[in-house]
Structures are given as C-alpha cells and as structure tokens.
Design a protein that fits this description.
Four copies of one chain form a homotetramer. The first copy, chain A, is mainly alpha-helical. Helices cover 76% and strands 0% of the residues of chain A. Chain A folds into two domains: 48 residues, Homeodomain-like (Arc Repressor Mutant, subunit A, Orthogonal Bundle), CATH 1.10.10.60; 137 residues, Tetracycline Repressor, domain 2 (Orthogonal Bundle). Chain A is built from ten helices and no strands. Chains in contact: A-B, C-D. At the C-D interface, helix 6, helix 9 and helix 10 of C face helix 6, helix 9 and helix 10 of D. Chain A binds a DNA duplex (21 and 21 nucleotides) through helix 1, helix 2 and helix 3.
DNA sequence: AATGAATGAGTCTTCATTCAT
DNA sequence: AATGAATGAAGACTCATTCAT
C-alpha cells in the first residue's frame, strides 16, 4: 500500500465519519461518501469489503483513540485521585475536541450494525481503568462496589459532561470539576 | 376514530418499535412493519404521514411513559432521599421491564431523524425532577451544582444501571442500591 | 337523484376539472378531488364508475358546451360572413371566458384516456358548421376546398386566437378581427 | 461519455418517446421504459435525474428538430412565397414522417410537466420564421398583422394539416396545397 | 345516498455492489 | 490501484378502488 492509497483510504474513512454523523447511516450512501472523499465508488471497494466494514472500522478506531488517551494517563502510577482526574479530563478533552467522532460513537454504539467482534475488540481499551479501580478497592481507598458498575458509572458521567458541553457550549473548569467531584465522591471512601 | 382503528394504529406503533429495536431503522422497511402489524402498507399511511413521523411519535411516547413514572413518584412531597430513590427506582424499573422501549430510545436519541420539536416536547417530562433538585439545593441539603448537570448526572447513572442489567442479566438489589448511593453521595451534602 | 346529490355530482365534476387542469391527470388523485369537492372518496364512486369515466364525461360535456354555442349562432340563417364571424366569436368568447375548460380540453384531447366513443360523440357538435360551409361551397361563395380541411383550419384559427389571448392577456377587437379576416380570406372567394 | 453509453442514453430517450406517445405519461412507468430500452432501471437514473427530466429533454429535442427544418428552409433568401411554402412543407413533412414525435408534442405541450425553462428554450427555434414574416410585412407584401398572431396562425394551419393526414391517411398534394394557399391568402396582400 | 378506513399492486427512485476497462 | 457505468433488488410512498357501516 503506497502513500497515495493510504491517503485515499484515510480520506474515505474521514468523510464517511463526517457524513454519517451529519446525515445518519440511512442517509449516507456510498456514492456520496465517494464524492466527498474525491474518489470513485469502485475505489472504496478496493479498500473495504462493504459499507458495514467501513462503519465497524471507524467505530473501533475511535474507541482505540480513547483507549490511547486512557493508556497515556494511566502509565505513570501516581496518586489515585490525580490519576482519576487526569484520565477523566483526557477522555473529556478528546470528545470535546473531536465532536464528530463523539457523535459517531453515540449514533452507532447501540446499532445492530456494530458486530459482536467489534464490541469485544473495544473492551480491552478500557482495561487500564478497571485495573486502576481494582487497585483502589483493594487498597481500601474506594468503596466496595461492583467493578464493572464503578467503571460504567464514572465513564458515563464523563459522557454526561461531554453531552452538556456539546449541547450548551463551552463548560467552565469549575463545572467540569463539579462533575468529576460528583464521581469522586461516589467512589472514594471518606 | 373507532375502537378497531385504534387497535390497528397501536398495533403499527407496537410492531414498529419492536422491529426497529431489533433490526435498526435502516433494516426496518414499512412493508415489514405492515406484515408484523397485520395490516396493509397503505393502512400505515392512513394513520401516519411518513416513516419519520412514526419514529418520532414512538420516541416521544416512550419519553412520556418515563415522564409519567417521574410524575407518579414526585407528587407526594416526602423525604428528599426517599423521593430520589423512588424516582430513580421507578425509572430503572420502567426501562428494565420495557427493554424494547429502552433500546429504541438508545438507538434513536442521537439520530438526525428525531426532530427538534420532538426533543423540545420531551424536555417537559423531566421538569418535576429538576424542581425537586432545585428544592434540595435551596434547602441546603444538596451540593451547589449546576442544575442541568445534576439532573443529567443522576439520570445517566440510572441509565448505566439499566445498561448493566440488560447486558448482564438481573441485578441484585444491593448492586442497584450501590449505584443509587453513588449518585446520592454525589449530590447530597454530608 | 335528488337535489343534494345533484349538487355533489356537479361539485365533483367541477373540482375534478379544475384540479386536472392545474396539476395534470397524473397528479390529480381521487382523494384530492374528494377533498376539494367536499365529499368522501366513496361518494365519488356512487356517482361515477371510475376516474376515466369522470374524465371522459367532463371532456364530452365541455365539447357539448361549445356545440351549444355553435348551435345558437347557426340557427338563424343569415349572411354567410356574419354567421362565420358570430360562430367564431362565440367559440372564442366561450373559451376565453372559461379558460379552465379550455385548458382541460387541451390537455386531454390527445390523451389515450379519451375513448373512441367520446370522440365520436363529440363530432356531432360540429355538424352545424360543416353544414354551413357545405352551403357556402355549393353556393359558389367559398373556395372549393375539402370540407373537413376547411372546418379544421377555421376552427384551429380560433384556437390560435384563444391561445394568444390566454397567454398574452386581453386581445383588442382589432386583433381578433384580424384573425377572423385571415380565416375569411382563406375560405371566401374573392 | 463513450459510444456505448451514448447508445443506451439514446435508446432510453427513443423508447420513452414511443411508450409515452402510445400509453400516455400516466401509463408509462420507468420500469417499462427500462425494459423497452433494454437497460436496467438504475441505468436510466444514471443518465437522467428524473422522469420529468427525460420528458422535458424529449420535448425540447423534438422542438429543436422542427427548428432545424425551419433553419434549413430559411437560410437561402428567396422569393417570399417560395420560402413560405418550403418552410411549411418542411414542417409538414417532418411531422408526417415522424408521427410519434408529433404525437408526443401534442400530448405534452399543454402539460404542467413541461417547465417554463423548456418552453422558453423552444421559442428560439421559431425565430427565423418570425424574421421572415417581419421582412414580408416591412416590404409591404404581407398584411399588417400582429407578428405573433401571424406566426401562430400559419403554424397551426400546418398542424391542422398534419392532424388531418395522421387521422385520415395520406393527403394528396392538392389538399396540402389547398391548406397552404388558405394560409397564404390569409397573410399575403392581394 | 354517503362515508372513510382499508387494501395492495404499482410508482418513482435509491443505492450497495460488481466488473470491464 | 482506480474508475464509473451498469445493475436490479428493495425502499418509501401513492392511489384507484372496495366495502362495512
């Protein structure tokens, strides 16, 4: 795969993401993606097997981006609260700065189009957080809560914040911190 | 509108909800909805203007169901924590007992198909909760947090719980209570 | 058939004429005719066997109106030129004062929807003109032209005038007379 | 556009013309046009945006054919009467030899499907005749008649002739000449 | 006579995918 | 690798007509 085709492949993925986010999957035909990406329809089929494959690839790749943020912010073992906050802020920043990717995830995560395989592949990107929470519980610093529940509650609280930010415009650092404190009070032992 | 057509109209809405939940909008043709509902395609168009209209109507009606639950659990002013828990459990129970409706909401809430008008109409169903939180803050019993943020965080925590329940099977009352306590710690002043 | 149903029947015919003229046959559904006529769809089918029947009935009835004008202006045998002019002006006036009927005829006369039977029935309405021309030729006052040709040429010249009037607004009596003289020169021996 | 697609495009136009002429627009579905043209339905939409676009394109192209005939017979400035007759005969011949095209025009010219744009585009094809008549009037050889009126009267007389020919079978040169003389007497000063 | 809910074949159009170039 | 014409199944929606009330 040479440089030019790399470019085309990426162009296709990028424009597909944008179009699907804006119009919905039902209203994002391959022909339109081709036009936006500046390639022929046939070219898309040189790089991808089907429309569903494109969608799944985009989905997983965005999840991976978030996974990278998590990894980055958990690699140096530091104070638990600091880590909690830096991971949370990292995810928050990623979504707020990549609203198209965020919106894509929202529209697709509950769709039957995303395969079981894709979902499974995405799970591993969250592993570092679960590890971190596990440590917190074992160290007696976190409340004794079901691990999966704790992970989902805290993650979804970040999503709530992102949602508010995207709908209502920029959030002040105070508001963001309020939300993170909300979560922290929920998991940390007094 | 007589009894029989009521039945047909409801049948259409019910089967459309089920099909869309299972197959996704793209894979839920009107012809299929008609078959499942036991009516002719034309009959659907006798009762609804378009596919989008059906989807929006279903969306709003489910939100209204949740609104009714909220209303039911906020009408008797009682202890704030009791109210918080009964509202939360009410919503939780509704979604867990109506997984199809829950899934429908998930798939559609971020879709461009749902109109601004529908979204606006749904907002009012949440008003009682916001009122309750407002009271809590003013009484000095809740932390001084942005009202919208507080509402979304607590609501989404219930959603998280529902998600876990639907994915992982029945949740023990302890787990449910853990999650509600997580939220309560997040909003209540110590 | 009582007075009320007469009214409804006529209402249906009137609104069908208008709608078809404005929208074309393809875009004039029975349901729309029913609404415009203020009746139920089923009511239309009490009065007419089918859509085609309505169209044919309207077509023939308009042709009959023109036939009545012809009859009216040929019943008193007078000077040939005067008769020619009064018949021509009569037809011209009818169309200009009934532009919807005129337009209906235009749109339908070449359509396969109009049956052979309808066409044949309409022919008789023109008989008086042909008789008049026959007389003119036999009297040696008109050029010796094929009778049918003479009839069509003169009639179509009136149509030309109507067309010009409807497209370009009111025509001065001078212009109208110019056209009638054009025809007259075409048929009268010098 | 290569040779093969040209062929397909033309095939579609040709078969659409024939079918619409025979069956009327309402009874000429795209599926049928596709079958007759020996292409897939989708292929039609590869070449045309909509059914209406096809119809308008056919309409204008036929008018253009007539325009070419007019142009051909007016380019050599000769005797006015000779020109009048050659133009008239040219148009007459075109229609008689292309009865499908003639019938198409008849069915469509008063239809709301033909756009204003199409009508305007067609006007220019008649310009040479109007110029010729203008010359005749200015040279004092033609009666002083409204130019548009003169154009329409003479043109419609040709149409009358065509109509008679198509309905009644072949017309003798004498009959044709009778009609042209009818028109000539109408416009020429004695 | 009048109604209008119901029907379902049929309409125009779309679009994922293929394939010859 | 890239193209884009071609395909045809399938989609949303229409509408003439029927029929129980």
């Amino acid at each position: 795969m040479n440089v030019q085709s790399m470019t085309k492949r990426d162009q296709i993925l990028k424009e597909a993401t944008k179009l699907i986010t804006e119009e919905g999957i039902c209203d994002s035909p391959m022909s339109q993606i081709a036009i936006k990406a500046g390639v022929a329809v046939g070219t898309i089929y040189h790089h991808f097997k089907s429309k569903d494959e494109i969608i799944n690839e985009i989905y997983v790749s965005i999840r991976k981006n978030v996974g990278d943020v998590i990894l980055e912010n958990t690699k140096n073992k530091v104070d638990l609260k600091k880590e909690f906050k830096s991971v949370s802020l990292g995810i928050y920043d990623y979504y707020v700065n990549n609203p198209i990717e965020y919106s894509f995830l929202n529209q697709l995560e509950h769709s039957p189009i995303i395969t079981k395989k894709s979902h499974v592949e995405c799970e591993k990107y969250f592993a570092p957080i679960f590890q971190s929470y596990q440590n917190g519980i074992e160290a007696g610093l976190f409340v004794d809560m079901d691990l999966m529940l704790m992970g989902m509650l805290t993650y979804n609280n970040i999503i709530t914040l992102v949602e508010l930010s995207i709908k209502g415009g920029h959030l002040s650092p105070q508001i963001v911190d309020q939300a993170l404190e909300f979560s922290w009070r929920g998991i940390a032992k007094r």
